[in-house]
Amino acid sequence: MIYNGEGGNMTIDNSPVITLRDLRKKFADSYVLNGIDLDVHPGQIIGYIGPNGAGKSTTVKIMLGLVEGYTGEVRIFGASPSDGGVEYKKRIGYVPEVAEMYDTLTAREYLTFIGELYGLSFMEAESKAKRLMEMFGLRGVFNVRIATFSKGMKQKVLIISSLLHNPDILFLDEPLSGLDANSVMVVKEILALLAAQGKTVFYSSHIMDVVEKISDRIILLDGGRIVADGSFEQLKGQSQEGSLEQIFNQLTGFNEHREIAEQFVAIVQEV
Ligand SMILES: Nc1ncnc2c1ncn2[C@@H]1O[C@H](COP(=O)(O)OP(=O)(O)OP(=O)(O)O)[C@@H](O)[C@H]1O
To answer: Per the database record, which ranges form the ABC transporter domain (predicted)?
Structure first.
């Protein structure tokens, strides 16, 4: 957001918050990312999808500075992860697919620890964490050890931890994993509200009907390349398929689900 001095109006600065140019990354001898070009603007909810092993997590981890040794250009708020600076990371929130949570801590201890890492004072982090836990129906377990939490409760703590510092970009990897239907509705609304305020959401998931509904831009990665990029309506227009699941099948050249299932079950029955 920038201040327009003369008129006194707030306007959204629409320059890209994420820029990738010819991004390539190889593990051992094979390229996992084969030249990714991308501009992401404030306020977009990007559905980042692709088959298992397509390179989605690798892209996100490069942007977070967690994976090095890539070629090409990566700019997050104009900064490059390879420069080693951490300032840009304060403006990022991340919900990983598999989280290393400190199970021995209580939710209160964990969230105040994460909040302080992001530069909040203990009091700010504690007050905010407590109220956000209440919003998710977790008031009674604020002082309980995370090790005793159900999968969905842990996921809610992770979502809160990614948002405590009010980030401008949110990277989410299967964020709804384990959440009940009511909580899913709440989180979908939260994402829409954040995007409406100019926050950018980079949403990676295999749940196609959710991606279809919440994303205003869908990026399909296959074999380390972007094979589709547009709104759901645009993708539908290009592929003449109905649902995002069908578009996904078509664009990744997959139509063997029945045969694979039959062969799988035949092997299971070999006794
Ligand atoms: N640290 C690593 N060392 C070696 N290979 C890796 C490493 N990390 C990822 N890979 C490989 O890179 C490829 C892409 O992995 P990545 O996790 O980015 O895929 P993904 O699209 O997120 O998949 P999924 O949908 O299954 O989560 C895979 O073949 C994986 O084995």
So the answer is: 18-248
Check if 9 has its Cβ closer than 6 Å to any atom of ligand 1.
Answer: no
Q: Which fold has domain 18-253?
A: Rossmann fold (3.40.50)
Cα–Cα distances in angstroms (integers) from residue 226 to residues 49, 50, 86, in the given order: 10, 9, 28
In the chain, where are the structural domains located?
Answer: 18-253
27 lines ligand 1 (CB under 6 A): yes
Tokens of 263: 């062969």
For residue 201, pLDDT over 80 is answered with yes
pLDDT at position 172 is 94
Both tokens assigned to 271 = 């006794």
Token pair in block for residue 146: 């995370």
Question: One-letter amino acid identity for 122?
Answer: F
Which amino acid, residue 188? K
Q: How far is CA 20 from CA 9, 63, 127, 201, in A?
A: 31, 9, 37, 16
Is any atom of ligand 1 closer than 6 Å to the C-beta of 53?
yes
Q: What is the greatest pairwise CA distance in the chain?
A: 79
Spell out where 71-123 has E strands. Answer: 71-76, 92-95
Cα 46 to ligand 1 centre (Å):
20
Ligand 1, pocket-test mutation among 33, 48, 57, most atoms within 8 A of CB: 57
CA–centroid distance, 122 to ligand 1, in Å, is 36
Q: Nearest residue CA, atom 7 of ligand 1?
A: 27
Residue 36 vs residues 50, 112, 197: alpha-carbon distances, Å: 14, 37, 27
For the Cβ of 56 lying below 6 angstroms from any atom of ligand 1, the answer is yes
- Indicate if the pLDDT at residue 6 is higher than 70: no
User: Distance between CA atoms of 161 and 93, rounded to whole angstroms?
Assistant: 8
